[in-house]
Amino acid sequence: MTKIIAHRGASAIAPENTMPAFKKAIEMGCKGIETDVHMTKDGVLVLCHDEKVDRTTDGKGFIKDYTLKELKKLDAGVKFSHEFAGVHIPTLEELLIYLFDKDIYLNIEIKLGGFYYPDIEAKVLELLYKYNYVEKTIISSFNHYSLVEVRKLDSDVKTAILYMEGLYKPWEYAKTVGANMLHPCFEGVNREIIQEAKINKMPITVFTVDERKEIERFISYGVYGIITNYPDRVMTILKNKK
């Protein structure tokens, strides 16, 4: 059965990467959540897609320049809808506390763009072990150096390479960085790649698939997982296929 993974939570109906978005995904019956991790000025892991807070909050500037206390003063819901006014950027620890007694597959994307967050990989692993969530988590990143660092620190946690364009024999490349899975943009893979990846024991989860025809296509290809902003849409299609 294809895993359904809510992209930044149920981000089509609630502010992305906030607790309401994560909770709504689970209320829908979704068994997987994808989220993005950055680090504050005082070394706390927080959940936000962008390096800056400008797009999703009423603040401005880089997350790395805010302390957690300062970041928590920002409104991360009002730009989505006034219904969510007062919602704040959550920490990774807050999400793990919420998930602690739930059977939810967690995909953590480590965000490393123009700058590097010192020891972010070790901090992520520390929290996963603290809340006994290693077995239910996969760590992904577009920065594959970060995945190499994760693998140096831990041989058990699952990792996945994120990539946009078509890679030649991506399962072979993934092994060079110690990754267990492939997370390509859905436009960069076809049926043949998915089938060959399966043969090479390197399952594929595609992102971000929202249109019904594309959802149906990738389900028919037998992908391991689909990352989507509309988990309810994917669940309906899967139920109808039973």
UniProtKB/TrEMBL annotation:
Pfam families hit by this protein: GDPD
Gene3D superfamilies cross-referenced by the UniProt entry: Phosphatidylinositol (PI) phosphodiesterase (3.20.20.190)
A GO MF term: phosphoric diester hydrolase activity
InterPro entries: GP_PDE_dom, PLC-like_Pdiesterase_TIM-brl
Domain called GP-PDE: residue spans: 2-238
Xref: PROSITE patterns: GP_PDE (PS51704)
One BP annotation, GO: lipid metabolic process
Name recorded for this polypeptide: Glycerophosphoryl diester phosphodiesterase
Classification of source organism: Bacteria, Bacillati, Bacillota, Clostridia, Eubacteriales
